Amino acid sequence: MTSPVIMPATRADLDDLAAMVNGAYRGETARRGWTHEADLLGGQRTDPASLADELDAPDPSTVLLLREAADGPILGCVMTQRFRDEAERPLCHLAMLTVHPERQGQGFGALLIGEVERRARAAGCVAVEMTVLHGRAELLAFYQRRGYAPTGRIKPFPYGETRFGLPHRDDLHFLVLEKPL
Q1: Beta-bridge mates of residue 92
Q2: Domain tally, the chain
């Protein structure tokens, strides 16, 4: 394989992107990989309309796609957005890191994280922040090996908002992790 290509998503990518993300996080196809949420949540992880909303927001997110070639299938993605925290620090939020279940374990996740960190540094961000659904010990360990540490803050799970999935448990919440740059 040649070096993978990382490029911003366009509106033309949103159907394929949503299908890849949903297949990696939910349902039986997700169980082929190790990063799934299928035991915690059912339903969708995202949809083309929600992804379009992210791209069209006043402070838009950037969705980066990983492909083997510019016109090849989507192998992975990550969503990133710059923001300022309550202390006015310039931060970058990393979200929706996804690698196709059959391509996990090949370094693609780390490659996407590295690209987010590179772009965040170039934009003057002092840290990258993310949230991880609690109860996902392997995923938390993956991020900690890459320098992300729990901040002690938690965020509630958006119960009742089915566009984020159908919870199988009533104790879901997100842990906030951060890595200084």
Answers
A1: 82, 128
A2: 1
- Decide if 66 contacts 77 (C-beta within 8 A): yes
For residue 42, the model assigns a pLDDT of: 81
- Give just the sign of the alpha carbon dihedral 121, 156, 48, 58: negative
Structural domain harbouring 64: 5-180
Residue pLDDT, tens place only, 124-180:
999 999 999 988 888 999 999 999 999 999 999 999 888 778 898 999 999 999 999
CATH number for the domain that contains residue 10? 3.40.630.30
The H-assigned helical ranges of the chain are 14-25, 27-30, 48-56, 108-122, 137-145
Is residue 150 classed as helix, strand or coil in its secondary structure?
Answer: strand
Instruction: Please report the pLDDT score of residue 122 as a whole number.
Output: 95
Supply the pTM of this predicted model. 0.91
Residue among 111, 118, 122 at smallest CA distance from 65: 111
Cα–Cα distance for residue pair 50/169, rounded to 1 Å: 24
* Tokens read off for 125: 């961000």
Comparing CA positions, the residue from 82, 100, 99, 103 lying closest to residue 91 is: 82
Pairing label, strands 127-133, 90-99: parallel
